[in-house]
Specification:
Layout: E1 2-6, E2 16-19, H1 30-33, E3 37-38, H2 46-52, H3 59-73, H4 75-83, E4 89-93, H5 102-116
InterPro entries: YeaO-like (IPR052552)
Protein name: Uroporphyrin-III C-methyltransferase
Organism: Paucilactobacillus suebicus DSM 5007 = KCTC 3549
Amino acid sequence: MLNLARIYDENQPDGYRVLVDRIWPRGMSKVRAKLDLWEKNVAPSTELRKWFGHDPQKFAEFKERYTAELNASGAASALFDKIKDQPNVLLLYAAKDVENNNAVVLQEILNGMNKNK
């Protein structure tokens, strides 16, 4: 099971906790985050993140560019190898928009890999 949650949310599903942002979430202590893994390599590049700027109108193109970055780097495959044996995984992100962020795209990619394993 692969779930998503905002790292700031109080009620989060249980699971192996993976932060998928390149930048540490503002105001979040490492103790409070309770991470099992911080996987910076699966986060969008700084250039792509700045270009996107969390603009929902750019999300479709962001998704294409981000997917291309992940395919070129192999970062999603590497993460999949790290988490594939975990029964429950929680991808954590800091973005306020719960529908238009990198974790949503990454979840879709990882779920596709899971179906093909």
